[in-house]
Amino acid sequence: MQNTTDKLIGYAVNAIAFALGLFHLLNVGGILVLSTRDIRITHLLAMLVILFLTRASFRRIAGTLLDRIIGGVLIAASLGSCLYILSRWKDIAMSGGDTGPLDAWIGLLLIVLVLEGARRGVGVILALICLFFFTYPFFSEYLPGVLGSRGYSVTRISELLTTTSQGVFGIPLGVSATYIVLFSIYGAFLSEFGAGDFFFKLANRLTRGMRAAGAKTAVIFSTLLGMISGSAAGNVAVTGTLTIPMMKKEGYAPHQAGAIEAVVSTGGQMMPPVMGAAAFIMAEIVGVPYSNVMQVALIPALLFFASLFFVVHLQAGKSRIVPLVQPDDDDESIWMILFKGGQFIIPFATLIAMMLNGFSPFKASYYSIIVLLVCHVIWTRRINLEMAKKAARAITEGTKAVVPIAIACAAAGIIAGTLGVTGLGSKISGLIIAASGGITFFALLFTMLTAIILGMGLPTTAAYLILATVVAPALAKMGVPLLTAHMFVFFYGCVSTITPPVALASYVAAGIAKADINKVGWTAFTYGITCYILPFMFFYGPALLMQGSAPSIILAIGSGAIGVYCLASFVIGFIRNDLALLPRLVTGAAGIALLHQGLVSDAIGLAAFAAVWFLSGPTPDLKSTKA
User: Fold this and answer.
1) Which domain holds residue 564?
2) pTM for the complete prediction?
């Protein structure tokens, strides 16, 4: 009986996910034209139903009759509240915001459902943070000083958060219902039709015969896959099962293999063209085209991945790992691999070209899916039932992957709405400015610490949403360009997934590598040290964000590449031979100097690095061994 019930629930979840994914595709394609509010309400309703069907109330009662009853009640409440709001929002809007008592109580019910959804789908930390912000207006009048505010009733706040576009149905949920769900479906299409296998084969062929080929394959593969996944833990789960055993076979210790995969997968959220979900939200909040976000993120992302490439190479040298000779039967040329992968390269190129030419990201992803299907037919020369099944699975799985993100976006809307109506956001910004004494460096430091601490217990999207509404405005008030401030916050929200003591990407990698969780976490932290330094560097050197003259940008890229090599040498303690403490510290300082924009700092950094390089002696000659 239990198995039958589980199967029925699985069928229901897949049906709802497929219907919602198709709903969004038809809407973007112009076949089904609905208002923004209708789309957001429908999106949230379906996501809540899927969540309450798939996530247990509590682990101890998972799968029991009590759990089913609780889930059924919550699903009924979700249907009732969302359908009521769907039927009422136009009348409220046309009347200039005239609401009644029932609107307020239904809104309160929806807020409770979103909070419970956040607890189940994202974690108790986000639910508690949202609960605090939701209840703040009720006790704010009793708080002293700048934290005090005029009091609000429960009904007034619930109306503001559910009948306007300032709360649950605000920008974050809107981004989830447009950009994120479409790109998730697009990534699922690529995965379902074999892009992952192509990326792996391409990465493996590019690194063939190199020292640490498995680790370098992991870097390239995760870079390519990260462009379509945008999820650190998800990237580890997909790529780690292939790359971590390869690295262990080469001679990397289990904790080193897990750490490499965790760090490089984390970088997938920063890598254009498809960055993490937070990047799409950033574009909406800042009010710039997504192509601008891609542009400013490109050089830091490339430097981050370059630093990982250097780390794995230098770690191989320090550990005396020798190149593996590949079997003779794997001799397919790079050109043949690229030709077979053309069915994925062409849609990917279409996506990038359309976004660079002013198309919205969700339109670009929609047409790229169509191009992918056309290319698949051309390459395979057939249209059959299996192709239809793959497409259906892609729509279903892509939609299901968005569930926790959509719930996090709805929950973050509660925070944004409360900050707006009470003025708490500007007060917190004032506190940060006061604490920093008006000194930008200290404000950046406080922001970094806040972002990392928040990100430890929250997914990147939720952490960024909170920081974007609370912390980023403080930096903007101090004269930091708005996009730079948000990019600064975004980077630290990303690397929180590899920052101990709570490092989700490292945990997933440790499980695959069968290594100690804490050892993987701290090793990943050291391997990813470049990403903790880069945001300060691109703040003080805007050329790293592709802002400024062409010569300054080219110089920043060149010196930055050498700089991240120096930082990798500092982390590993190896250049051509093992480094003693003093030259190791000099190399680290040289890396920071080279990343800092300026001719003088570049010259000093380059001279220091050159001195250490020549004094380190030649690299030991190691012969290849068979795989």
Assistant:
1) 549-619
2) 0.81
